[in-house]
Amino acid sequence: MSLIEFRNVNLARKERIALDNLSLTIGEGEHVAILGPNGSGKSSLIKTITRELYPLQGSSVKILGRERWNIFELRPQLGIVSNDWMLACSRDYTGRETILSGFFSSVGIWPHHLVTSEMETKASEILEVLEIAHLSDRFLSEMSSGEARRFVIGRALVHSPSAIIFDEPTNSLDFRSTHEVREILRKLAASTSIILVTHNLFDLIPEIERVILIRNGRVFLDGPKYEVLTSANLTELFGIPVELVVRDGYFHIW
């Protein structure tokens, strides 16, 4: 079964075409990076997958083989880690509350939420996996950006989703925090599909096998990582001369 299947998807945002006849398929179990410059359609693609935006008539979008979803049934299938969620969760909620809120698709735990012992157990397991149990009672607003990012990742794991979609996962992080987040992504790649959406080439962990380049709302190139990521292709994608260097499975450009 395909995890995500887009066929001739057109999406308009106000008066601008954000996705232009875009087609792509991502299978279950794949680790894929979607790479493109700012304004290329990456955010619109994510919001179309999560049903925050709907494409124009004639487009076909299937998630896990289905075109129609109850949004509350879809959310547990796809873990989302985005800058929008980072901003929403950076309030006076503890790390544990942030993770538990994933069960309710909320920001924080509210009085009407019934937190079960099973949920508490799952949250504790996630805290251990992400190595953040020692921070669980601290408010996210008191954490560093890297520490808070790990709790937002934990929030996305509560339902053991079929795939986790990361939107610019290391945005605004320093070198050490970037390294820590990439190590978490590598750990998660052993048990679930990773869809990494970014404009930063250094976000790509070695486990990424396939890269999709998008430009102006269209797929520019799609294929195995080492065939797609070349200096010539990236120069054309970003519109400036690019020198590509690979070290220890990570890509860097100048």
Short descriptors:
254 residues, alpha/beta, Rossmann fold, six-stranded mixed β-sheet, 9 helices
Write a structural description.
The protein has 254 residues and is an alpha/beta fold. The chain has a domain at 1-64 and 193-254: Rossmann fold (3-Layer(aba) Sandwich). It is built from 9 helices and 11 strands. It has helices spanning 42-49, 71-74, 83-89, 95-100, 117-129, 145-155, 175-188, 225-228, 231-238, and strands spanning 2-13, 16-27, 31-35, 60-63, 78-81, 163-167, 193-198, 210-215, 218-224, 244-247, 250-253.
Query: H/E element string?
Result: EEEHEHEHHHHEHEEEHHEE
Please tell me the overall pLDDT: 93
Form type: globular
Low-confidence blocks of residues: none
- Lateral strand order in the biggest sheet: 5-6-7-3-8-9
In helices, the fraction of residues equals 25-40%
Helix/strand layout:
Layout lengths: L1 E12 L2 E12 L3 E5 L6 H8 L10 E4 L7 H4 L3 E4 L1 H7 L5 H6 L16 H13 L15 H11 L7 E5 L7 H14 L4 E6 L11 E6 L2 E7 H4 L2 H8 L5 E4 L2 E4 L1
Parallel strand pairs: 3-7, 3-8, 5-6, 6-7
Antiparallel strand pairs: 1-2, 1-4, 8-9, 10-11
Helix pairs in contact: 6-7
